[in-house]
Records
---
Amino acid sequence: MIKIAPAVVMLGQNSISVAKKIISVLPGAQLYGLAGRTSDVDVTFTEFGTTLRELFANGTPIIGICATGILIRTLAPLLANKRQEPPVLAVAEDGSAVVPLLGGLNGVNNLARQIASVLDVKPAITTTGDIRFGIALEDPPVGYRLANPEYAKSFMSDLLAGHSVRLEGDAPWLRNSSLPIDQNAERVIQITEKPVVSTSTRLVYHPATVAIGVSSTSPRFQHPSSLAGRGRGWGSEEIALVQQMLADAELAPASIAGVFASTLDAANPALQAIADALNVPIRFFTTDEIAAAMSQNNTADGAVAIALAASSGRLVMQRQLSDFNCAIALAPLPIDINTTGKPRGRLAIIGTGPGASDWMSPEVKEILRNATDLVGYSTYLGLLGFLGNDKRRHESDNREELARARMALDLAAEGRFVAVVSSGDPGIYAMAAAVFEVFDREAKPEWQGIEIQVAPGISAMQAAAAKIGAPLGHDFCAISLSDILKPWSIIEQRITAAAQADFVIAFYNPVSKQRLWQLAETRNILLRYRHPETTVVLARNLGRDGESVEVYTLEDLAPELADMRTVILVGSSKTRMIQRCDGSVWVYTPRRYDERKTP
């Protein structure tokens, strides 16, 4: 099973159509392209060998759309431990061949089949056991874990040499294979939830059939302030109880499919500790689903209902410790963790930068690849290009920030991975503050378990400064001229204070169709403290079609020069302009602040 998203590496633009087919069936896969020869990629590289070796060393599966020879020669010096090698495949530029090269113990053949299927070709699998028996013992399908992988190779060699095998327990993928099955054979493959001592002649697979249901009898939601200094939710005692229950029931930890709980318990900060201790995922059921399971199974115990809902099987054990209930149930078949309950919701508030995809951080691109839902102003969503494909879009007007934040939190509470999209940086006059404001004001219990992150982006003022030089090279501040969310009297005070303090000032939202006089009044205030020849930079449509960066003086600053897509940088008394030989200029503010007047 592939646990890390693969890197699809291409050396020329002719490979793009094949590459996009491949990543369409590999969620989270990143497209790597050679600089100067490729476009529309997630990561650009200049050194092929260095990039490949770094990916390999980090355990990232590699799908090279290139000749097998270049992959082999590049990675050969790193080949040392077969069990730790990530999958490496070569794919022909035209998609006519898929060749697994490395990672036989880590899912390379299954990955090859998956890629070959979308390309409509047959994978060039050469593993003898896979060819003869249609199976790779070292790489069981999802839902099964091999307890003793160190014996798998010699075990398969024995079967290839003519030995037969006896199956103990049931696993359709083994029963339906071409293995030489004989119920009197000395060599055994055992499928069991029990802890079993394995040997070179006995392979043991643990099916993921154990469901652990947990519930709390204490109040399900507490405001974060009430948890300060508490230091304990569900902790070491509860983990010890779960582990003791597994031992008493004679169940192998490798057979645990997951920990299952109520969505209302997701806010408990120690819930993750239980899953981490068991090295399994967490999934949640809604109160309605739990109520239905209680009724169906005639139980008033939430943990029991949750375990039975997750397993569709039988109850093995139930115990209670203080305000903590735990139940273990056994499913008749491996539990599909992707369709049982729902994951913890994720909400990422991202900044895409001013517009150009090159200004998008790798973190933001990774979030966009993995998100299920995109929430944002329609114009900003339209700037995402192919990174916004195949996502549920929730578009809204730019003035509906709080409603947009509320929608995003509600979607994440359903177990979705939601990306709230802002241009520039999400924490600068953008959606991050709106999300936290709604979260703070409304404090819905179902929101408390959401995992929230803020992924920064290049702000408009940073992009504008970079285009013209370094006008933000010394102390600066940012002021929005929009009086929709704050009164003009406050804006006026801040302009005056910034002007008096001799800050470089970045002005956001300078002009709109309804607001024309504010920029003129801003200029008038500044002229009380700044020289009329003070340098002013107007940057419009940064990173988009129609980009322009122009330099004016303060006395020439007028409303008709700007709009809502413009950011304005007003220099301090120390900001300088350098005339270039081609007629253009650089603008910078020296880092050394000399109180003497600048000549």
Note: The first strand starts at residue 7 and ends at 10.
---
Amino acid sequence: MALRETQELAEYRSLMETPDEFEDGFGWQTVVGAFFIGFVMMPGSIYLGLVAGQTMGPAAEWTTIILFTEIARRSFAPLNRQQIYILYYIAGGLTAMMGGVALSGGAFAGLVWNQFLRAAAPGDLVSQVPDWVAPPPDSEAIAMRTFVHPDWLPAIGVLLITQIFSRVAWFTLGYSLFRLISDGEQLPFPLAPITAQGATALAEASSKEETWRWRLFSVGSMMGIGFGLIYLAVPTLTGAVLIQPVAILPIPWIDFTQGTERFLPGVPTGIGTNMASLMLGFVLPFWMVVGSFLAAVTTAIVNPIAQVTGHLPTWRPGMETTRTAWAASIDIWLSWGIGTAFAVAGIGVYKMVVEWGENKETGDTAGFGFGTVNVGRGDFRVAWMLGLFFLATTGYIVLCRVLVPRFPLVFLIVYGYIWTPLQSYINARMVGLTGQFVAIPMIREATFILSGYKGVDIWFAPIPLGNYGATVQRFREIELTGNKFTAVLKAELLMFPIMIVTSFLFWGYVWRLQPIPSVYYPYAQKMWDYQALTQWVWFSATTEGGHQEIFQRAIKPLLMVGGLAFGLGAYGLLNWLRLPVMTIYGWIRGVGMLPHFIILQFIGALIGRYYMRKRFGEANWRVWPPVLYAGFTCGMGLIAMLAIAIVLIKQSITQMPF
């Protein structure tokens, strides 16, 4: 029997209809906008990441859109939604943030981090870090804090090559997965309409067609501005003039863990303080949120039992939320999550095979699960995309063989040609069903350690191990806004040189002003040492006498098998009983989340389903939440940007000698 598509999946799939016609949103406005973002927004994004550990995010994206919309409106050349979305796309790409060190501002942010990471190496390990990572700490380039030095040439060369390979790989595989997941499997992508509806609302405003979208977007923006004043502006501004900032609401949550550990040992408890999480509950599929809440309840039951029976040895009384969640992950949920992630992959493959079999019976096998080619949408040939991905992956492998010739070639082949597509497919299905990112953790660490390789250079090598599943949602957003995919390709070709040049200029400037980290950058000063020490614990595992205790504690084959069996069994049971199968996807998602955010989302889902739908009508409430949420994030972003601008002006005046 074929797997059925639930009514809820169909509902979220049709939340915003795919346009019948597509236009190219790339134009002169896009070019000007890209330069504006690179030369105006990027410095603020760099500073915000170093000082507060946050990205400009929605502030950069929506501020750019609103500014260019108003300019175009007064020039009697209003922007359409295709052009607005391309501006949004470029703003997000140029101000994106990397990893746990909260660095944004383009590719050269990684080089600043690498030079610090090399200097923080314990003992003689600093000499084992190759120069293609960063110059040695005693180099004149490091002492002068400048990229304009010959010692940086190897690192910059590797950086530029890997940037090209990575962009080709994510675009080609991401597009191929979009054709498979969206065109073929018709998954709902519940978060994709948020951006698409926001772009539609702004496009209507720019052409003076102020329909319900713009009015609702405005309501959400005012809500975001009001909440942002309390949540973001007050602590940011008071932190600039006082020794300690004043926070009306603790960011990002109120922690109850140490108070509840007497009767809930090993359970991270608390409640988030960001209203955006509650509003996200309006948008996400209801039964998916219910599944996540059931996962939070499950951890609250299982963790105390595991602690009493001695199966939670990493946890200690007095641990706060993050340490408690980390301990439970190491002892239980990491291995269980790996098993459930494989269950997601198995379900997806089975569904694809079943659908292909049905198509074969009817004689419709031309797409083999990739749907049909839409020439007006600017579709590319999937075969060509997969071929380019293969070439980029091969380039990665060749580069790694040059940089780390002693590392076993078989691992690089498995990483690039097998594991990256498989992991990306797992993540793409989770994004398509729940809007949430999922990744199978510790694969990189496990294979490095189990390979028997000795040396720290492999940890810095650009290995072909990626997860490009989340990019599938971007292609769905592009489709919903009526953009041709060729417009995004043009935008990527424009963004790359602008990103490289502006990142080189502004990171060099900021680094030259003051050492990083230092007292001038409090977040970096507080977090970089912690992140470096954590990473060097793993790096030392591939040296002589390295420690592997954490890895050995975390990987439990029996729990992996249990997670796999549970995922497959629960999905099959719900499908057989004709119950919402999205519940199990929500449960898998919830196991990896802190309950602080799940509680807010669950409250929002209940309010939306049992009050808002009755109050405003089901037909309206099906399409309102994405627009409302988009406006809310825009309002919060504008307030954050205004507060940071005031802080920057204040610090500039303070440092002036007159």
Note: The first strand starts at residue 97 and ends at 98.
---
Amino acid sequence: MPYYSDDLIEEVRSANDIVDVVSDYVRLQKKGNTYLGLCPFHNEKTPSFSVSRNKQIYHCFGCGAGGNVITFLMQYDNDTFQEALETLAQRAGIELPKQEVSARAKQEADKRAQILEINKASAKYFYVQLRREQGKKGMDYFVKRGLTQDILKKFGLGYSNKYSDDLYQYLRKQGYEDNLLKDSGVVAFDEKRGGYDKFWNRVMFPIMDVNNRVIGFGGRVMGDGEPKYLNSPETMVFDKSRSLYGLNLAKSSRKTYILLCEGYMDVIALHQAGFDNAVASLGTAFTPGHANLLKRYTKEVYCTFDSDGAGIKAALRAIPILKEAGITAKIVKMAPYKDPDEFIKAEGAEAYEKRIAQAQNSFMFEIEVLEKDYDLKDPESKTAFHNAVARKILEFEEELERENYIEAVAERYHIGFENLRKLVMHQGTRIGIAREARTLKSGIQEKRKKEDGIKQSQKLMLTWLIEEPSLFEQIESYLGPEDFTDGLYRQAAEMLFSQYRAGKLNPAGIISMFADEEQQREIAGLFHARLKEITTPAEKEKALRETMIRLKENSISYRSRHLEPTDLEGLQKLVADKKNMQKFYRMEWGR
């Protein structure tokens, strides 16, 4: 990885105001000296995500996410440090110097570039074959499915010949070696046959990343062969769990939501009908990687899956994953038709638009599916259904949201509101409303152990010093970095005191000094403690004095316990600090 100096990193960071950058991703509202919004790293209804223009850092009081503008992009976009720095440098118009990379890194980058070249050459080859005589079978299939020449071109659709080594021979003539072709995923090898095409006698769907680079392929067999649909294997450029078909086009849609489908043809049919915001997962179940990818472009997803049992199961799997990513999910019903492609052929785009407008709330969809497991004409089964619904409602963490869904379910199933509410409360008492903490993006935990008092005091003091630098003059005779006894707190204090003595406090710069994401998050938390509202100078003096006493007494106790018998200098410092504390207790400090 290229090496960039600390000065250059700081130049890029300071050229990108954190409020301006975060505002591109999160809706922020000014409140006092900070900006608040809904945290993009965990699902919440009440804003706990705080961004400080003064400190140039962010911190979520709900899940603990925190850092500076660089770490924000790393967490939000799953970028590497280098990728985040390059994005911010480009945003600020700063040119990063080209650095020498290691031989291994260069080899990896060259290989990725060559595989992308092979994919591009393969896509062109398939595209041409579809339009030649040997591709007539494929063209007839697409025409029969109602696709226009414009849409064929837009998606780069093609055909793989019925001979199983056509593409292999073509790529060999282009100069690509067998070992590289094997890693590309378009060619396979065995001892008897040697090299042969992964795809043959199939209509071909190039899969592109958001930068319009071909990263893989899907192919549908012509005839009765198996498997019906075949995707490229995963390669160093193709990760199925983080790739969505059609997103390269859908990301530019003016619509504020995205339509999530199951198959290639659904996406293509929707785009042809004017719904240019359709995407699909690639022959795999919907994953958190897909959700995080979608989150970059939308906050609302309409699931438009097949109407059969498999489609219903796919929707039930996708809903909690979308919710976990902070995306609102709705369900577009296709019945009596099988899928969006069939629906549009039968009813047209206008009717499909109406189905979108009538899309069902995802929770009510889950309840509707749950209902099918019970016989509501049987009193015992009906009671069991009501209890299952009550447990389901308890999944909502906020009381207001639970109340809203109690009202909606009670109205839908003709249950008295108070009856259902009591049942929810009863179930909550039995199983406990609190649930296990979920593992969130970047390993952030929504529920964390309560900090001990001394750590809270150390954090409070660090935040106070940043908020009011004039306090340094009042405390430095009594308190120093050595009085912050936790390892990370000590490092942060040393850097902060050093910055003060140099004449410039820069908490966001301190975060950049730590390479570990967990440490960056914790440092941001140290500088973002919640300060109690203090209305008078006397209250402020009292609070500051009490905090200092706690820190100093803890520091003296800690050093006493860890003092080496031969450490005379340490002993002398302890004695001096104890005498100093006696003076501190007696004096009317701060006046």
Note: The CA atoms of residues 482 and 490 lie 7 Å apart.
---
Amino acid sequence: MTLTRRIALGVALLLVMTGCSLSDPDAGRSEPSGRATSTGSATTAATTTAPETSPDRQKLSTPDVQPDGFVDPPAGSGMQRYLSQKIEWRECGENECATVRVPLDYSAPDGQAITIAMTRRAATAGPRIGTLFINPGGPGASGQDYVDSFQTTGLERFDIVGWDPRGSGESTPVTCYGTSETDAFVELDASPDDDAENRALLEGTKAFARSCLEHSGALLAHVSTQDTARDLDLLRQLVGDDELYYAGVSYGTMIAATYAQMFPDKVGRMMLDGAVNITDDESVIQAMGFETAFDTFAQWCASNRCRFGSTVDEVKGTIGDWLDGLDQHPVTVGDRTLTQTLAASGLALFLYWDESQYENLLSTLAEAMDGRGEYLLQAADLLNSRQSNSYGSMFYGFSAILCADEADRGVAAAYAQWKADEDKAPFFAKYFGVGYTCPVWTAQPASKLVITASGAKPIMVIGGTGDSATPYQQAKWMADQLESGFLVTFDGAGHGAYGGKSSCIDSAVVAYLTTGAATADGLVCTAG
């Protein structure tokens, strides 16, 4: 998993540091796989056949393993056995928690079942509107953890429910290597300078993919966003709502858009913040968002006469030269090593915020350049979901979900794409590295949906002009492609806009979710 595969992890981990996108430049499109089924009423979604057919994915036998969360299906038969479940909420700190069962494969509801875990903060005001499902992104971030940090002011008439999507968290998680093997994988040079480094990265990525298959088995073939959308519709029915109320950030907007395509008649109100790319247009890549955010930091640094230089080019040059030097001379941090790839990961994490984190980024980089790399390594660990001496399920689920969603053009095309992307984002595209994970994955991707959500009620799409992880153009594209989408713009920096950055944004979101008031397309809000 190279940096470009891991970068979206930061969106959910911001919650840790304050209390992730899904734009993949080398991803292609898949042919229909014939896996279309639903919880019952999904609209038959259009697919396209494209030349990208994942030619280099490893073709291996699926081992008969039982990951945590594999359970027997409920009593009965067919989908009705799942729809007849009763949610048994139990006290869980200040909230309530529950688990339900869903089919591993919706085309075989009488086969293997898996577990979905969720947390609820009950409505505190009346009359109750319904359940607002929330998701913080990733892919693979914990919706349960998001419940405590999600801003609920004005939304007190909703039950707020966050769930861990299949493949992650306390739901049935994807598992792979142990900690030491994952550390070795993460320390591989993601931006190879010669054939030997490139071979090492490729072989290491293949071994990582095989480890996920060995530990997760059949689960890997059933963790796509389409599978998650079906889970979400089942959850909607189990809580008793006729329509879905939803708020999602980053990859959470992909879940929502996919759901709206599959179940347009069940869309109630959806707020999609920090929208990802749902189009076929690859002219704007994620690295460009980080490049813009880094330029803004460099301008701030130069204006404040920081030690890195007096101009943007000098600041970027100083930091770039240091990163390049780490290729041969990494920084020792205890029994670990701050490599070039890990240092770039730590730098990228800070760029999820606005200027409020510039001082911290400056001091963290300065200390690392002086040989004290522990804080920059901690930032990289947060991005990589590394906690103490273990990796969170999000690290592994991220790759599994991404590769279940997107086909690719193979190993050679991934390398060529990496080189081509440097023209669009000369600084960050280089360090993001080669995207080999999906080209050598062991499971095939789901069929591709053409997402227009025809027939759905108005859907709010929010984009930030200075968003690093999900460039603003992606929000504009999503609002245009969704037939009922309307765009709200946050003119400011940082990833995601709702939740305290802008009273204008927050007011528009609350009004829309509680009353259905669709703010006029084109509303622009600023910070404050």
Note: Residues 69 and 172 are 4 Å apart (CA to CA).
